[in-house]
From TrEMBL:
Signal peptide: none
Annotated pathway: Secondary metabolite biosynthesis
Keywords for this protein: Heme, Iron, Metal-binding, Monooxygenase, Oxidoreductase
Family: Belongs to the cytochrome P450 family.
A Pfam family per the record: p450
Binding positions for heme per the UniProt entry: C445
Cofactor(s) the protein needs: heme
Lineage per the UniProt record: Eukaryota, Fungi, Dikarya, Basidiomycota, Agaricomycotina
UniProt key word Ligase: no
Keyword Metal-binding (UniProt): yes
Gene3D superfamilies, per the entry: Cytochrome P450
GO molecular function: heme binding; iron ion binding; monooxygenase activity; oxidoreductase activity, acting on paired donors, with incorporation or reduction of molecular oxygen
Protein name, per record: Cytochrome P450
Organism: Dacryopinax primogenitus (strain DJM 731) (Brown rot fungus)
């Protein structure tokens, strides 16, 4: 009893002393003379705590903040700076041109240490390991190497389209399953239908967990790392129990498919896959195991969820903008006809359909807030200090809706990416980064070509065979897609949809191509 009382008194003293010291530090910073440039403007923080809470609808609130404070806005969370980049110019300058000093990742106690995600490709902070990851990805998923996966993508998208026509009400589950099947086959060479359903469920929830763990200020232990040392069961330590649950799921999701490929390889039964090709060239080093297992996991866990979101967003756009759908179908009829199905190889002959994939990614970017980068050194931008240790985050949603860059930005207009002669515009590649949300600088997603190919396959296969429309009893005004208001993978929760055959033989041709 007395020992406990002594600790409580000591703890209270420490808290009081820390509070006094923090207040004195804040006051000293305010009155001391300094030759350093000022931080970017931003909302006034609450003393000691800062701007802790995220807004109810970040898309609206962050636009209002950009209108008020400008292209760079500074938030303070428990003394740490979080700087939001609201313009293409700021993103290009700080994340692309100055990538050497802006490619870091914040070390998160909850995500990295407790849940065990420090080796995840999007999270790894070690520059040597990060270069290894990128080198491996570039060799396999560059614009030319990624063509090796076109057959896998085409087959799974045709299966998806046939299911959309025969059981439309389950469209969301069909999309999730198809994109997961593509990524799982590429990563591990395995049929997802043959895997444990509980594992599949955990895999589908992985990306949402990752987004939750990375949200700035989501867990107090990330802001006050000392909480990690408190005994489990004490007030304020519920995060430890949750971390154990999540860590078990992460270990299962990352390790089970990888070990399965290793076992198949040992018995000579492994099918071709990304994991197998790297295992065959590995020399047994621990770093090889880390690189292979975690990059394979990134292909599946991140790639399937974001591609599924893109297809959901595309279908929603087709209901809201039927004139765009009709124009794409005119192009498909003129170029492909109705005697064969379109393929990814037809991309250069279908510029309007290709532009639709780009516009889908801009109109509803799957990652409206890019993952935060960590500044590794001080930088000056437009007279403002972007300090070492600050987190900087691109406001992709605002960039994609910038009226000067994209007039009538709320409209779905593939013509943005076409020149006057209906060919792909030279500006498309220049606007690709900020508009499409594949990340920036050294943190840009190396699987972007794979993602675009899957989305293009979905666009041309669905529109060649089907008419997508709003069901009877609904209208554009009453159709609520249920987009999330908190930072997450940006996809509709669920919406009513009608998918019908465009011509009598469409479904039969799809089924025949699947079984060939």
């Amino acid at each position: 009893m007395s020992a406990m009382l002594t600790f409580q008194i000591s703890w209270g003293t420490v808290v009081e002393a820390a509070a006094v010291a923090a207040v004195m530090l804040v006051l000293w910073r305010q009155v001391r003379p300094s030759s350093r440039p000022p931080l970017p403007p931003g909302p006034r923080p609450i003393p000691l705590i800062g701007n802790l809470s995220l807004p109810k609808d970040y898309r609206v609130t962050f636009r209002e903040l950009a209108d008020k404070y400008g292209e760079v806005v500074n938030f303070c969370i428990f003394g740490k700076n979080l700087i939001l980049l609201n313009s293409k110019r700021a993103v290009t300058e700080l994340l692309e041109k100055r990538a050497t000093t802006s490619f870091g990742r914040q070390k998160l106690v909850m995500a990295h240490e407790l849940v065990g995600l420090k080796y995840m490709f999007s999270q790894v902070s070690d520059p040597v390991l990060h270069r290894q990851y990128r080198r491996v990805f570039s060799a396999v998923f560059g614009p030319r190497p990624s063509r090796a996966f076109w057959d896998i993508q085409t087959l799974q998208i045709r299966k998806l389209t046939a299911k959309l026509l025969t059981s439309t009400s389950e469209y969301s589950a069909h999309i999730d399953k198809a994109t997961a099947a593509i990524s799982f086959l590429i990563a591990y060479g395995k049929d997802l239908d043959q895997e444990d359903p509980s594992l599949v469920k955990k895999i589908h929830g992985f990306m949402g967990l990752l987004m939750r763990l990375q949200a700035p200020g989501a867990f107090l232990v990330d802001l006050i790392p000392g909480l990690q040392k408190l005994p489990e069961g004490w007030p304020g330590t519920k995060f430890k129990q949750q971390a154990k649950v999540w860590r078990k799921e992460v270990d299962e999701v990352m390790d089970v498919p990888y070990q399965s490929v290793k076992q198949d390889m040992a018995s000579g039964k492994a099918d071709p896959s990304y994991t197998l090709s790297l295992l065959e060239g590995a020399d047994g080093k621990d770093t090889d195991e880390i690189v292979i297992k975690w990059t394979a996991g990134a292909i599946f866990n991140a790639g399937s969820d974001t591609t599924a979101a893109s297809i959901h967003n595309f279908l929603y756009a087709m209901m809201m903008f039927p004139q765009v759908q009709a124009k794409a179908q005119q192009e498909l009829d003129a170029v492909i006809g109705r005697d064969r199905l379109p393929t990814i190889e037809d991309r250069d002959k279908l510029p309007y359909c290709w532009a639709m994939t780009q516009e889908s990614l801009r109109w509803q970017p799957v990652a409206p807030l890019a993952l935060p980068h960590l500044m590794l050194a001080d930088e000056i931008y437009e007279g403002y200090l972007i300090p070492k240790g600050a987190m900087i985050m691109a406001n992709v949603w605002l960039l994609a809706r910038e009226e000067r860059e994209f007039p009538a930005a709320a409209e779905f207009q593939p013509e943005r990416y076409l020149s006057k002669d209906a060919k792909p515009s030279e500006d498309a590649e220049q606007t690709r980064g900020p508009s499409f949300g594949f990340g920036f600088g050294r943190r840009a997603c190396p699987g972007s070509y794979l993602a675009e190919d899957s989305l293009f396959a979905a666009v041309v296969t669905i529109l060649w065979s089907s008419i997508v429309s709003i069901p009877a009893g609904y209208s554009k005004e009453t159709l609520d897609p249920g987009y999330p208001k908190k930072p997450a993978v940006h996809r509709p929760v669920q919406f009513p949809i009608d998918v019908k055959r465009r011509f009598p033989t469409a479904l039969e041709m799809l089924k025949q191509s699947i079984h060939e």
